[in-house]
Amino acid sequence: MAITKTVDIISVRYTKATTVPVEEPDTVWVDQVITIDDPDDDQLPIVKHNMYRLFADSDVSNEEQIVKDIFNAVFTK
C-alpha cells in the first residue's frame, strides 16, 4: 500500500483587532493536524499538530494550500 498524507482542519478562529489589554491586529488562528500513514508500516502513522497565527501581512507562500485559502478568504477584500 502507498503512504498517504491527510490534512485536517480542526478549527478556524478570527479575532478582531484590540487595544486592551494588549494591542493586537486582526488575527486568524488555524488549528491543523497532518497525518502520514501506511497500513503496511508498523512505525506509522506520524501525526503533526500545527497552529497558525496569521495576520494580514503574514507570508503564507510556503504553507499548505488550505491555510492559504483560509488566509485569503479572511484578509483579501
Features:
77 residues; mainly beta; three-stranded antiparallel beta sheet; 1 helix; 14% helix; elongated
Q: What does this 3D model show about the protein?
A:
There is one protein chain. The chain has 77 residues and is mainly β. The chain contains one helix and three strands; from the N terminus they run βββα. Strands 1-2-3 form a three-stranded antiparallel sheet, covered by helices on one side. The longest helix is centred in the C-terminal third of the chain and has 11 residues. The protein starts with a strand and ends with a helix.
Secondary-structure map:
Layout: E1 4-15, E2 27-37, E3 46-54, H1 65-75
Antiparallel strand pairs: 1-2, 2-3
Write down how many β-strands occur, each being a DSSP E stretch of 2 or more residues: 3
- The total of helices stands at 1
Largest sheet: 3 strands, antiparallel
Q: Radius of gyration from the CA trace?
A: 16 Å
* Residues in helices, as a percent range: 10-25%
Roughly how many Å apart are the termini? 44 Å
